[in-house]
Design goal:
Enzyme class: transferase
Domain Protein kinase: 10-265
Number of domains: 3
Oligomer: single chain
Number of strands: 21
Shape: globular
Radius of gyration: 24 Å
Organism: Nocardiopsis metallicus
GO molecular function: ATP binding; protein serine/threonine kinase activity
Protein name: non-specific serine/threonine protein kinase
CATH architecture of the largest domain: 3-Layer(aba) Sandwich
Strand content: 25-35%
Strand order of the largest sheet: 14-15-16-20-19-18-17
Number of helices: 10
CATH class of the largest domain: Alpha Beta
Structural class: alpha+beta
Length: 455
């Protein structure tokens, strides 16, 4: 297919790639001044109604799930020759396959990617859909103001779970597809996707895909020093017997997350780098970060650590957050009940996982900040039991702020938790902060407080 000038109002810039069923183009939405990816059904399938149905079904699934972890579909339309096309999120950093081809990934980054891929597949399973073609080239990477986003893509083989017993043709990619997928008419369930997640995990960790099933060589034999629990999990996911695999994508992902959060992850990853963004690509993110966040350098107890400034224009507050924690950013996250009762509106949250901020089971590290009118003591926050036991209470007093910090050194085995209520001396406006860290670091808390600014 030669390069078209435009698809509707979308001006074509260049081809991004093509496969058996479709071609993907980079285009510019000149009305909204925004780049998009446009996926167009291949010409040789123009009159195959079953292929057209599959193409449009992919668009419907992506649109209906509408998840942070999946490629978004913004629009669909039909060309003059009858071929459908869909307008999607443009992933400007390529795919996980591209990342793997550049060289072995640090273990923490590999586990971070795997966790986010698993979250995308968990969303699909919750929607009642099996992906059936999970592989590194079908996981895209996009710049965002707080780092790199993982986007699960290419649902061309996706099917509803309740139709799993009716699959009539084998589908998937050899090396990543479960053994039962290679059998036409095989009875599939979500554990087929778990097998594929195991194959992707194997490649993320070792740099190479697993062998044909049964897989007998553990990743740790290729990359010595891995946690035994990681070897065990990946081999279990790659089991020929699906009864031996983790029950679903969520179970698999939760176990990956637990391994990643273990206190002594191999490779001696520095404390302050445990949630770092890929620094070697930080320059490519600069343009995307300018509008919403600006990186600044600070020691913060660790030489070379980076901070990201995030702000809530409505509340007129700016907070500097360790960039390694700021994987996601919300400006209107709900405050805890006791703080909301004191008059606080929803505040800003920059964290590794904003959806799990209030969870007691899943670690999510970052900073939450909101402004409370007046100068309430907010001592009631210590009674809301975000963590077990009584907190340590200490006074905050410097040239810019005075108030109180309530600190739990260990919060549900997920690191340290600190609640802070401070206000400028003589000013009736209180800033309430929540800071969740992998380890108890009061110096980090003090540095974050010092850098808070009311605009």
């Amino acid at each position: 297919m030669s390069q078209p000038e435009a698809f509707g109002r979308y001006r074509v810039i260049r081809r991004l790639g093509s496969g058996s069923f479709a071609t993907v183009w980079l285009a510019q939405d000149d009305l909204l001044k925004y780049p998009v990816a446009i996926k167009v059904l291949a010409e040789n399938w123009a009159h195959q109604m079953d292929i057209q149905h599959r193409f449009l079904e992919e668009a419907r699934i992506l649109r209906q799930t509408d998840s942070t972890w999946l490629v978004a579909v913004h629009d669909v339309d039909v060309l003059a020759d009858g071929r459908p096309y869909m307008v999607m999120t443009y992933a400007d950093q390529g795919s996980v396959a591209d990342l793997i081809h550049r060289g072995q990934l640090p273990l923490d980054e590999a586990l971070r990617l795997l966790t986010e891929i698993g979250q995308g597949i968990t969303v699909l399973h919750g929607h009642g859909t099996i992906h059936r073609d999970i592989k590194p080239s079908n996981v895209l990477l996009q710049s965002s103001p707080v780092g790199q986003r993982v986007l699960v893509a290419d649902l061309g083989f996706a099917k509803a779970i309740d139709e799993a017993s009716g699959f009539t043709a084998a589908a998937g990619t050899p090396g990543y597809m479960s053994p039962e997928q290679s059998i036409p008419g095989g009875d599939l369930d979500v554990r087929s996707d778990v097998y594929s997640l195991g194959a992707v995990a194997y490649e993320l960790i070792t740099g190479r895909p697993p062998s044909r099933p049964p897989v007998k060589v553990a990743p740790g034999r290729i990359r010595p020093g891995l946690p035994p629990a990681l070897d065990e999990l990946i081999l279990a996911a790659l089991s020929v017997d699906r009864e031996s695999r983790p029950a679903d994508a969520k179970t698999f992902t939760d176990r990956v997350r637990a391994i990643r959060m273990a206190p002594h992850l191999p490779e001696a990853v520095p404390w302050w780098q445990r949630y770092r963004m890929p620094w070697q690509r930080a320059g490519a993110l600069t343009a995307a970060c300018v509008l919403m966040a600006a990186a600044v350098s600070a020691s913060l107890g660790a030489p070379g650590m980076s901070l990201t400034s995030v702000r809530n224009a409505t509340q007129e507050i700016r907070v500097d957050v360790p960039s390694v924690w700021a994987r996601e950013f919300h400006t209107d996250h709900e405050a805890r009940e006791s703080v909301a009762e004191a008059g606080a509106a929803p505040g800003l949250l920059a964290a590794t996982d904003t959806d799990e901020w209030h969870s007691t089971d899943v670690p999510a590290y970052g900073v939450y900040a909101t402004v409370v009118p007046g100068a309430p003591g907010l001592s009631s926050v210590a009674d809301t039991q975000p963590c077990e036991g009584q907190p340590e209470e200490r006074a905050i007093s410097n040239d810019d702020w005075e108030g109180t910090a309530w600190e739990w050194r260990e919060c549900h085995d997920n690191g340290a938790f600190t609640s802070v209520a401070v206000h400028p001396p003589g000013t009736p406006k209180t800033v309430y902060l929540e800071i969740r860290q992998p380890d108890y670091r009061p110096d980090v808390v003090d540095e974050i407080i010092d850098r808070v600014e009311l605009l």
